[in-house]
Amino acid sequence: MSVSRYDLVLADVILPDGRVADLSIRDGLVCHTGAPLPAEQIISCRGMTVLPGAIDMHVHLRGGIQREKEDWESGSMSAIAGGVTVVVDQPNTIPPLTTPEAFRSRVAEAGRNSCCSFAINAGVTPGTDLSALWQEGAMAFGEIFAAPSSYGEGLSPEDLSAALSGIGRLGGLATIHAEEAGTAIPGTLADHNRNRPPRGETKIVQAIVQSHGKSARLHFCHLSVASSVAAAGTASVEVTPHHLFLSIEQSIGSDTLRKVNPPIRSERERKQLEGMWDRIDVIASDHAPHTLREKDVPFGDAPSGIPGVETMLPLLVARMKEGRLSRASLMEKTSWRPADILGIPRAGFLPGARADFALYGEGITAISVDELHSRAGWTPYEGFPAVFPEQVILGGAPAYHGGEFHETAPLWFPGRGYYP
Ligand code: DOR
Ligand code: ZN
Q1: Which residues sit with their C-beta closer than 6 Å to ligand 1?
Q2: Environment class of 11 (CB within 10 Å of its CB; exposed 0-12, middle 13-18, buried 19+)
Q3: Fewer Cβ atoms within 10 Å of its own Cβ: the N or the C terminal residue of the chain?
Q4: How far apart are CA 245 and CA 308, in angstroms?
C-alpha cells in the first residue's frame, strides 16, 4: 500500500488539555492528531509553547500616500514576526475605503504584498453604499467612528444610527469606535484623557447597545475602561495591549508616543480594566503606526496611534509564562473568539483546523525596537518583558524561522456577504 505523505508534522506539541501529540498537516489543515504520519518535513516542538496563529482584528496597515508609516509588506512582516497570522485591516486609509473600486484594489494590493493572511473591513461614511461593499467581500463594517480620530470623521448620531440599521439589515458586523471628544487642544496625556473621558466612552456604548443592541451585531473596538466593558451587553468587546499595559503615570519617554484614541488612562483605571479579563472577548492591537518625525511635535499636534501588532502576543505570552494569565484564555482572546466573531475557520490542534501556529521558546526577553519590523520605527514597550515566536507556520508551511521570512500562500478571508 502506498501512503501519501503529509506536508508537515509538528512533533511533541503540548495540546490545550496537557496531552502531547504530533500534528500531521496537509493542504493547510491539520489532518491527524496523535502519532506522526509520514511527512516531507518534521518540526520538533519539544520545549516550546505552541499557540494557534493569532487573528489581530484591528490593524491600520496604511499604504498609499501613508506608506512612510507602513504598508502591507512591512505591516504583515511585523504581524508574522509577532505570531499573528491573520490581520483585519481598517478602512480609514487615504482615501477611505468606501467604494467597491477602492475595496477591490485594496484586496489586490494585499494579495500581492502581504505575507500574512488577511481580511479587510469597509469604511462607513454618510451615504456609503454598504450593500455594495458587503458583496465585494468586506469582512465587517468600520471601525465606525462615533467621534473623530486620526483619519476618521466622527459620524453624527443620526448617520451612525442609519448606518447601524443598514448593517443590521445586511446581517453584517458593525465594529464601533465609541468615544466622545471635547474640543480642547490637549498639552499632556492627562489633558487628552480629560478631553476624551472614560464616561463619554461608556455613555456612547450604553446608548448604542440600547438603540441597536437587538437589531445589529455589534463589536466594540478598543474599550479603554471597565465601565465600558460592563456596558457592552451581548456585544463583543475588544481591548488593546496599550490599555492593559500602559498608564498615564508611567514615565517611559515622550508623551506623544502614548497619544492614542481612546486615550491611555490612569493606573487605577488600567488595573480595573485588567480585572475585566474574563469578560473581554478579543485582544487586538489597534496597530496604528505613525513615524517618529510625526510624533516629535507639540502634544496637541501629534497624530494619535501606537504600533503594536508585533508586540501584542510577545507581551501576553510573557505574562502567561509569569503565571499571570492562562494559556486557554490567551488562545481564546487572540485566536478563537476573533475567528468565531468574524466567521474565519479556527486555527488549532484538532483535525480540520487551519494549520496556523506560532512556536514560542522558554526564555523571556526584553522588547527592543531594533528587532521590530514596523516602518514606524519605535515602540512604547522598549524593555518590557516579552517572548517572541521562534517559528511561525502559515497554512501548514514555515513562514518565519529565527528572524528569516519564507514565502507561503496567505489567504484572503472575505466576509459573509461576498458575492463574486
Ligand atoms: O489612535 C488612533 N489611531 N485611534 C484610531 O481610532 C485611529 C488610529 C489611526 O488610524 O491612526
Ligand atoms: Zn479606533
Answers
A1: 60, 92, 149-151, 177, 260-261, 288, 304-305
A2: middle
A3: N
A4: 12
pLDDT tens-digit map of 207-252 = 999 999 999 999 999 999 999 999 999 999 999 999 999 999 997 7
Cα–ligand 1 centroid distance for 304 (angstroms): 6
Q: Are strands 20-26 and 39-44 parallel, antiparallel or unpaired?
A: unpaired
Catalytic residue among 71, 89, 286, 356: 286
Asked whether 338 and 331 are in contact (CB, 8 A), the reply is no
Position 1 confidence tier, pLDDT thresholds 50, 70, 90: very low
Sign of CA dihedral 60, 61, 67, 69: positive
Q: pLDDT tens digit string along 326-380? A: 999 999 999 999 999 999 999 999 999 999 999 999 999 999 999 999 999 999 9
The domains located in the chain, with CATH, are: 8-49+349-405 (2.30.40.10), 53-342 (3.20.20.140)
Q: Can you give the length of the chain in residues? A: 420
Rounded Cα distance between 132 and 419, Å, is: 10
- Residues 263-295 have pLDDT tens digits of 999 999 999 999 999 999 999 999 999 999 999
- pLDDT, residue 148, reads 87
Distance 113 CA to ligand 2 centre (A): 24
Peptide bond into 143 cis (omega under 30): yes
